[in-house]
Amino acid sequence: MKPFQKSPISLLHVFTLLLTSIVICFVLLSLISSRGIDRVGQQFSQLSQTMLPSALSNAELTKNVLQQVKFMNDGLHVKNSNDLSKIQTIITELHQQSITEIRQLQQRSLHQNAELTINQIHQLKEHIHTLNMQSSRILSIQKNTLLLSSKIKENLPSLRYGLSSIGPEMNRISAFLITDNANADDASNRFVSSAMALETTFLTLMAEDNIMTAQKWYREIYNRIAALELAYDDLSLEYPDLNTYMSLSAPLEIVMDEMRQDDSIPNQRLTFLSLVKEQKELISAASETSFLATTLLSKIALAMEKSLAQRTELVDSSIDVFKKIILISSCFLIITLWIVATWTRSWMSIGLKNITHHLKQLSDHNYKHKVPEVGPAEMQIIAKNLNKVITSTTHSIVNISNNCDVLYQTSEITNSVSNDIEAGLTQQNEALLSMASIVSQLDLSISEIAKLTQESHQETYNATQAASNGVTVIGSNNSRLTQLNEALSKNVIAMETLDREVDKIQSMVGVIASLADNTNLLALNAAIEAARAGDQGRGFAVVADEVRQLAGSTSAQTRNIRETMTALLDAANEAKSSIAVSQTEMSLAIASSMDVSKTFEHISDAVTLVSDRISQVSVATEEQAQAATEVSNNIGHINRQGEEMELQLSAFVESTKEVAGIASQQKALIQNYRF
């Protein structure tokens, strides 16, 4: 039975408990402050539902009253009936708005504890209604005066023409019409005098603004008209043909027709002055009414302002109490959070220092010690995973070290085989040079035989001996070429062994890369956990970043190893291709040597039969010379191929040296790690 082990405390559990405590504190703080907020809300509700709307309505009513007075004043200066109608429409709309605002005030005074009495509302209604009636009547009078002015202006030119023409015309006519007639002369003088007085009186009436004085001049006008008619009648009795003078009768008729009408210009003038008088009285009354209305609204506004100030003080006191409660609760919450944060920081620092210390050792390639599992549960998990990484990395590096040793030994073997091959090629080249020299001698011998065939049979015997020596040399050359071909086969086998060892190293490098990727993934998960922890997880984030950098370094080393192995494999493949070409060329050289051997056999047979075929010596000698030339060319070709093979072997030797150097470098890198 396993002994009981105490479960480590999780950092997430601590933060969850801390956040839960904070939420509970805020909930309690909200419950405590909600009552104060409700009180303030009630006060603001009363202000928004009663005082503020009432104050706005009061201001709107004051604005409407002042606007009615303004538009009424504007209407007094309007000279166009259309503009006056527009002003009347605007005043009517303002009156309707005022009625609506008064109704709203009345409703608030009935349903709320508003600072507005029923008597004040009744007075306000009366003032608004009176002001509207007065404004309407003033604008109506203004409209009538505009119409009267228009009519007077329309008819005034013709009347003034008549008044200004009858007097002078009568003087002109009487000057040549009346002779030695005292009655006619008196009537003419009275007519002229009345005409001039009528014109003067009419102009005075048109210029008069006082209705009483204007009525006096009105009566004077019609007295002058009666005197004018009497003088004209008296003169007509003396001179009946007076009516035939159109220069007098026409303007006189214009004057009389105008004065006899009910809406004559003097009557219109009196009506105009009476309307102006009434308008002034109404304007004075409207000013008084607007003053009373604005005074009443000012009293209502002062009462509302006083009530608003009282309720504002109540709201301010509630807000001050609420501020004190919030301040005390916030101070308590901040102190508590500071204590908890200090304890959490000291608790986390133990695990963070432990992880940071061992990560620094890992970055220094020190894998001797394992990471103790201390601190929060997350830190312990990281320590456990780091221990797994240390174990797996140590095992992988040991395997890589062993593989580097094998690779170095294989490179040494390959280098040795390559040196043997190079020595064989050197011997082959020497043999070929010797063969070329022998072929040259053979060519000379054949030429000499061609010249001295008939001189000595002994020379044929010497030729037979030389041919036998050539066959022996060719046989020796074939033996050496066969040995060289076998050495190349051994080299191919060694290169295949090298390929297999390189494949093993690459598989081990893949394992290391996989471990580095897993380490990087663990570091990323650790960084995510640190980000979730917020400010408390910053140290944890530093640890995760160190782990990720270590994994990145390991990945970089494995990539370098993989690239080196790839280069080694490419070099081995090139060497294998070169050896295959060398084997092909070697087979061709062996075949050429066989041909040379057969040629020398033919030469021996020909020399043996030289005595029987003396007649054919010349032809045979020429054939032998051609064969010797071909052999010389083949030997030169084989010599060139041998040189090329030697160059390829040199490149292969350099490649094996590079492989050995890479293996040494990897072994030196691995020796930096301490286990």
Automatic annotation (TrEMBL):
<feature type="transmembrane region" description="Helical">
    <location>
        <begin position="325"/>
        <end position="344"/>
    </location>
</feature>
<dbReference type="Pfam" id="PF00015">
    <property type="entry name" value="MCPsignal"/>
</dbReference>
<keyword id="KW-0812">Transmembrane</keyword>
<dbReference type="GO" id="GO:0007165">
    <property type="term" value="P:signal transduction"/>
</dbReference>
<protein>
    <submittedName>
        <fullName>Methyl-accepting chemotaxis protein</fullName>
    </submittedName>
</protein>
<dbReference type="GO" id="GO:0006935">
    <property type="term" value="P:chemotaxis"/>
</dbReference>
<feature type="domain" description="HAMP">
    <location>
        <begin position="346"/>
        <end position="398"/>
    </location>
</feature>
<dbReference type="InterPro" id="IPR003660">
    <property type="entry name" value="HAMP_dom"/>
</dbReference>
<dbReference type="InterPro" id="IPR004089">
    <property type="entry name" value="MCPsignal_dom"/>
</dbReference>
<keyword id="KW-0807">Transducer</keyword>
<keyword id="KW-0472">Membrane</keyword>
<feature type="domain" description="Methyl-accepting transducer">
    <location>
        <begin position="403"/>
        <end position="639"/>
    </location>
</feature>
<dbReference type="GO" id="GO:0016020">
    <property type="term" value="C:membrane"/>
</dbReference>
<comment type="similarity">
    <text>Belongs to the methyl-accepting chemotaxis (MCP) protein family.</text>
</comment>
<keyword id="KW-1133">Transmembrane helix</keyword>
